[in-house]
Amino acid sequence: MKTNIFNWSCKHTWRTSAKNTMWCVVGCSIGDFGTILFFQLAKISFPMTGIMILAIINGLLTSVMLETFILIRQNFKFMNALKTACGMSFISMVSMEISMNLTDYYLTGGAQLTYWVVPIMLTVGFLTPWPYNYWRLKKFNKACH
């Protein structure tokens, strides 16, 4: 009887998946934090839930844009780069966005960037999808970047 035992101890894969996950955090946080900061500084009266939903959507969009740019620099043609970026692991990006915004909500009441909450949001945003990205890379040899 053949058993498939998944190897969670490959240091090379953990390093590679960490690098890929970090690029995703950078891309997602640009749109996410930018949206929250805009509403915070502009003092526009808008429901907190609406701000957080916009932040998640903008985080996903900026992540896809950053990925497209990175792939173009790796000699992908624009349409192939865009398709690849859109076909990245949306599970990873969505889980990252939701975990970052839930952290913000839990710690500040939502849609509030402070000097102390941002590092926590980034850490949670990184740690949430990292094991999934490792698994996807190890099992299917598919990276998000």
Class derived from helix and strand content: mainly alpha
Proportion of beta-strand residues = under 5%
The number of distinct helices, counting runs of at least 4 residues, comes to 6
Mean pLDDT: 91
Helix proportion range:
over 70%
Biggest sheet layout: none
Q: Tell how many strands the DSSP assignment holds.
A: 0
- What is the N-to-C succession of helices and strands? HHHHHH
Number of domains: 1
Radius of gyration: 17 Å
Shape: globular
Q: Indicate the low-confidence ranges by residue numbers.
A: none
User: How far is the N terminus from the C terminus?
Assistant: 36 Å
3D structure, described in words:
By secondary structure, the protein is mainly alpha-helical. The chain has one domain. It contains 6 helices and no strands. α1 packs across α6.
Write the layout of secondary structure elements.
Elements: H1 11-42, H2 48-73, H3 78-86, H4 90-108, H5 117-127, H6 130-140
Which characteristics define this entry?
mainly alpha; 6 helices; globular
Briefly say what this structure is.
With 145 residues, this protein is mostly helical. It is built from 6 helices and no strands.
